[in-house]
Design goal:
The two termini are about 40 Å apart. It is built from 18 helices and 12 strands. It has a 7-stranded antiparallel beta sheet with strand order 10-4-11-2-1-3-12. The chain has a 5-stranded antiparallel beta sheet with strand order 6-5-7-8-9. Helix 4 runs antiparallel to helix 5 and helix 6 packs across helix 8. It is of the alpha+beta class and about 500 residues long.
């Protein structure tokens, strides 16, 4: 979404400063001292009469007070805009500000105008104290149990609360389960969408003939149980986690004074998933991958490192969830094949086509085709309103609302020419939770191969003949790019850390 601002031309008047010679020749009596409160009215009257503009001389103590008030007001504004600052740091800052404002409240020498500014500061400080304390209580609730981060998503995420999405939390609760209230409701909601996803895939694959389906399911599920979760970072950060634990962005905001994070505006506001730790799912023997997480906070290159957890020991299969592709860009890999040998393929993310290994492969095997629905004037108005209050939330909305509007027309396209086929790819097909993760990933592989049978049979035959390990690698790189998420913080051991 692009917001366009109309700028009105404004007439400007400019006061020019006197030259050095003019300043030296100006006589002192040209400056007048006005009684307190004379202000703009006396200045305007002098201008109408063509007289010198009177300038009120400010006593030294009053000037100092004005400077103090200006500094306090700047500090209050900083506190109010501290969405990326920890609760501890915000609370400390507001308590210091509260004490400084109280000193001015007790100053009997304050002018009436300054008293009004101090009263405004008091209202602002009290509001910020209440906001910080409310945020602390909110994070206490979200981080108390493993289900809390799911509650955080359904209460704050723009996608899960979008009124136009049929699978939004409130709509599904009304339609399917009015008892979804309280702390367990968020996790129950995601589990329901996951079950819908698996059921939909099984309905599609039930029409497929051949005994290869069950062999592929069984082999992949067994191989996936041997896979690992990997979190890529720098060696310095990984070693810090040995003492403080591996913390989510929400945990850092809750408990640390200063912290660095790489959570995007979309994750923070669009999904509100900052109560989860992010991992890739990989084969244990997979080499290091290049990621944006190898840089330190100051932008310098760090020593690449990764944290590895067995998928069954990690807790993912009981309390975590997986998105099959990044929600932010729906980055299902595009698959292209060699026209002379369609079993040979190259896959790439649509946003990274320049990284293709085989740009000469020009036969389309599969690509995600986003819908092209038009946003409404109301959507644009909502974007503008959100952006005025919080630019990062507005930025997230500019991604979420088009996703929702396009959901019914999103498709996965297979093949080219007369053989081309399109299948719906709604947002709900992107979610697997807990015990559905391994069966769901295996079922998605079976579904993909069954579709290749219709449009690129040479590739389907190649995949059917693959070993479970090779097929899992193809699934996790060429078919999907799943991101696994674990709720709350996690204790790690030195043996979990590997450096490149």
């Amino acid at each position: 979404m692009h917001a366009h601002e109309q700028q009105k031309a404004r007439g400007t008047s400019r006061l020019t400063a006197p030259t050095r010679a003019q300043a030296q020749s100006t006589s002192a009596p040209a400056l007048h001292t006005l009684p307190r409160g004379a202000g703009n009215a006396a200045m305007a009257e002098a201008l109408r009469r063509g007289q010198d503009v009177p300038v009120q001389r400010m006593p030294a103590d009053t000037a100092a007070t004005a400077a103090t008030l200006g500094g306090l007001e700047a500090r209050l504004k900083e506190c109010a805009g501290g969405a990326d600052t920890s609760v501890v740091k915000r609370h400390t800052a507001i308590l210091h500000l509260d004490a400084d404002v109280e000193k001015l409240e007790n100053d009997p020498q304050l002018a009436p105008a300054d008293q009004q500014r101090v009263a405004g500061l008091r209202r602002g400080v009290d509001q910020q104290k209440a906001a910080v304390e409310a945020r602390a209580r909110q994070l206490d609730r979200y981080l108390a149990k493993d289900g809390g981060p799911y509650t955080m998503m359904v209460e704050n995420g723009l996608l899960w609360t979008d009124q136009y999405w049929p699978n939004a939390f409130a709509k599904m609760r009304e339609r399917l389960n009015p008892s979804w209230w309280g702390e367990a409701a968020g996790q129950a909601y995601f589990e329901k969408m996951s079950r819908q996803n698996v059921a939909g895939m099984r309905q599609d694959t039930s029409k497929v003939q051949g005994d290869w389906k069950q062999r592929m399911r069984d082999g992949l599920q067994d191989q996936l149980r041997r896979s690992v979760l990997r979190h890529y970072t720098t060696l310095r950060r990984a070693e810090l986690m040995l003492t403080g634990g591996m913390k989510t962005k929400a945990d850092l905001e809750h408990s640390e004074f200063d912290y660095d994070h790489n959570t995007s505006a979309f994750d923070e506001h669009g999904l509100s998933n900052s109560g989860f730790l992010f991992f890739f799912i990989e084969d244990p023997a997979a080499p290091f991958r290049d990621t944006r997480f190898k840089k330190e906070a100051d932008g310098t290159e760090g020593t690449p490192a990764r944290i590895t957890l067995g998928i069954q020991e990690s807790g993912l299969l009981s309390k975590g969830w997986v998105m099959l592709s990044d929600f932010a860009q729906r980055e299902y890999p595009t698959i292209m094949a060699d026209e002379n040998d369609p079993a040979q393929t190259d896959s790439f993310l649509p946003t990274r086509e320049d990284e293709r290994r085989h740009p000469e492969y020009q036969l389309l095997v599969r690509r995600f085709t986003p819908g092209r629905e038009t946003l409404t004037e109301a959507d644009v108005d909502t974007f503008m309103e959100l952006s005025e209050r919080d630019s990062t939330r507005g930025q997230a909305f500019s991604v979420v609302r088009p996703m929702v509007r396009n959901d019914a027309s999103n498709a996965m396209t297979y093949g080219a020419g007369p053989q081309q086929q399109n299948y719906p790819e709604p947002l709900v097909r992107n979610i697997l939770t807990g015990k559905d993760i391994i069966p769901g990933l295996a079922e998605r592989a079976v579904l993909e191969v069954s579709r290749f049978e219709q449009t690129t049979p040479q590739l389907a035959d190649r995949l059917k003949a693959m070993s479970p390990q090779a097929l899992m690698k193809f699934l996790l790189k060429d078919l999907l790019r799943p991101q696994a998420m674990l709720p709350r913080q996690l204790e790690i051991k030195r043996s979990d850390i590997e450096r490149r």
